[in-house]
Amino acid sequence: MAASQGDAWRRRARRRLAEWAHYAVANGDRGMSTAEYAVGTIAACAFAALLFKVVSSPEVQQMLSALIDRALKTGT
Q1: φ, ψ (nearest 5 deg) of residue 57
Q2: CB contact burial 43-61 (16+ within 10 A = b; e otherwise)
Q3: Rounded Cα distance, 47 and 59, in Å
Q4: Distance CA 31, CA 35 (A)
Q5: d(CA 9, CA 23)
Q6: What is the pLDDT along the chain (76 residues), one digit of tens a residue?
Q7: Cβ–Cβ contacts within 10 Å for residue 68, how many?
Q8: Is the dihedral of CA 29, 35, 37, 40 positive or negative?
Q9: What is the pLDDT of residues 17-26, one digit of tens each?
Q10: Where are the beta strands (DSSP E) in 1-59?
C-alpha cells in the first residue's frame, strides 16, 4: 500500500510541475519588469548615495572649488 501512495504522490507532483511549466511558458515575462525596475531603482539609489558621499567629502569639495576658481580666473 505504501508503494501506491508513493506513486500517487509522484503523479500529483508531476502534474503540478507540468501545470507550473505550462503557466510559466504561457505567461512569459509577466512580472519580470516589476522586479527589474525594483533592482534598477535600488542600484540607482545605492549609486546616488555613494556619489553623494564622495562629492560631499572635504577633499572633493576642495578640488571642485579649486577647479571652479581656476576656471573663473582664467576668463579675466
Answers
A1: -70, 150
A2: eeeeeeeeeeeeeeeeeee
A3: 19
A4: 7
A5: 21
A6: 456 777 888 888 889 888 888 877 777 666 667 788 899 999 999 999 999 999 999 999 999 999 999 999 875 5
A7: 10
A8: negative
A9: 888 888 777 7
A10: none
